[in-house]
Specification:
Blueprint (H helix, E strand, L loop, with lengths): L1 E5 L2 E4 L9 H11 L8 E3 L1 H7 L3 E5 L9 H10 L3 H6 L1 E4 L3 H13 L3 E5 L5 H9 L3 E4 L4 H15 L2 E2 L6 H17 L5 E5 L4 H13 L4 E7 L5 H7 L22 H10 L2 E5 L1 H13 L11 H8 L8 E5 L6 H14 L3 E9 L4 H11 L3 E8 L9 E9 L3 H13 L7
Parallel strand pairs: 4-12, 5-6, 5-8, 6-7, 9-10, 9-12, 10-11
Antiparallel strand pairs: 1-2, 2-11, 3-4, 13-15, 14-15
């Protein structure tokens, strides 16, 4: 059962058994030695000031292949028998797991086939191929790609390397938790993005057995939050629809293996909005100088949304940095708008020479940067001597937005919207 005293999170009850142990995670670390990196832990002065307690960023975006996924993918393939390796492996992914499996298979001399959604970002598709996998585009979502991968496994005998629903995958991801405890032994809260659950479950196993006082918090996108209803139901349930810019945690159904662990060991499941995700990505880029994909920024989004909720020291896991440049551009613009650094205005001018120049001159006095100007002359609501001007401005924040709007009002510009 799930007690939900706050609309943003669910407190998770305890169970009595799980599929992965601390010993499994420690054994995984031995296997991964020399394959994966011990990623850096960076302090964030901005988030520390905001929360009033030390905040550190665990930079899995700097892992080989750009995310934590190599950990679980390599361990799963490394433990296959010689006969299983000879049959090859198959998986499905929007990008991060695809690259992790492709590299792991190449390192271990195993053939790999990866199914990806038809709309998967081109850089992720290209990188997966470059690591040596055969890529097939199927379906509109990872769930549909996974169905195609399962069918491939049945037809060819290839071993399915599930993105999150296998004990070896969970154990491999759990090595992140061991590193955090060594790098920040005083940690009190670890915040992790949550999709299918492999990373959160693995970190929780590693951390909670060694440090039961440490809280592990999972973060989901509001539009793809399958864990809260699943926890309420007591078993994984499938969302009718999942929609979020954070494709790395856009999973419509929790995995059976991680679900049991999350239910037992993860303290909370919190959800964050698209605005919060884009603002967090912008903060990581501007303040921490780190390129992070929306899913990787989800823990930071949770900290920004309710900073007083987290007991410190806090470690936020930046799970990946594989972001399509086009998605990055759109997300950054969205983040700047959410932070009040874009201002869109529509106002009416007398349609005469020099009117627009006078408006732009007025804007220059308040240091607003004009990004775009559009004229509308055919709206029937306009007078015969009027023109509507739509402006997109770059500003310095909410206070500056108010200053710009007030300056224009005092100057007598009408129709301000």
């Amino acid at each position: 059962m799930v007690d939900s005293p706050h609309p943003g999170y669910a407190t998770v009850s305890r169970a009595v058994s799980r599929a992965v142990s601390l010993a499994d995670v420690r054994a995984a670390r031995a296997t991964l030695s020399g394959v994966t990196r011990t990623t850096t832990l960076r302090g964030s002065s901005h988030l520390t000031a905001l929360l009033g307690t030390p905040v550190h960023l665990k930079c899995e975006n700097l892992q080989r292949t750009g995310s934590f996924k190599l950990r679980g993918g390599y361990l799963r393939i490394a433990r296959l028998s010689a006969e299983e390796r000879a049959r090859g492996v198959v998986t499905a992914s929007a990008g991060n797991h695809a690259q992790g499996v492709a590299l792991a298979a190449a390192l271990l001399g195993v053939r790999s086939t990866v199914y990806m959604p038809e709309a998967a970002p081109l850089p992720k598709v290209a990188a997966t191929r470059e690591y040596g996998a055969r890529v097939r585009l199927r379906g509109e979502s990872v769930d549909e790609s996974l169905a195609a991968a399962r069918e491939h496994a049945r037809e060819t005998g290839a071993v399915l390397v599930h993105p999150f629903d296998h004990p070896d995958v969970v154990a491999g991801q759990g090595t992140v938790g061991l590193e955090i405890l060594e790098q920040c032994p005083q940690v009190r809260t670890i915040v992790v993005g949550l999709g299918g659950g492999g990373l959160a479950a693995g970190v929780a196993v590693a951390v909670r057995e060694l440090r039961p006082d440490v809280r592990v918090v999972g973060v989901q996108a509001e539009g793809a939050a399958a864990y809260p209803p699943s926890l309420l139901a007591g078993a994984p349930v499938t969302l009718e629809r999942a929609s979020t810019m954070a494709d790395g945690i856009k999973v419509g159904r929790p995995g059976e293996v991680p679900f049991g662990i999350v239910r037992e060991l993860v303290e909370e499941i919190r959800t964050v909005s698209e605005d919060a995700l884009s603002s967090a990505l912008l903060l990581c880029l501007e303040r921490a100088k780190l390129v992070v994909e929306p899913a990787g920024a989800s823990p930071v989004a949770a900290l920004l949304a309710e900073p007083e909720h987290f007991e410190g020291p806090v470690v936020a896991v930046l799970s990946g940095g594989n972001v399509d440049p086009l998605v990055l551009e759109r997300t950054l613009r969205h983040g700047m708008a959410a932070a009040g650094r874009y201002l869109s205005l529509r106002l009416r001018l007398t349609d005469r020479p020099g009117a627009l120049a006078a408006l732009l001159e007025r804007l220059s006095t308040v240091d607003a940067n004009v990004l775009d100007v559009r004229h509308v002359r055919t709206d029937p609501r306009l007078g015969v001597d009027e023109v509507e001007v739509e402006l997109h401005l770059e500003t310095k924040g909410p206070r500056h937005c108010r200053e710009v709007a007030e300056t224009l009002r005092r100057a007598g510009y009408g129709g301000l919207d």
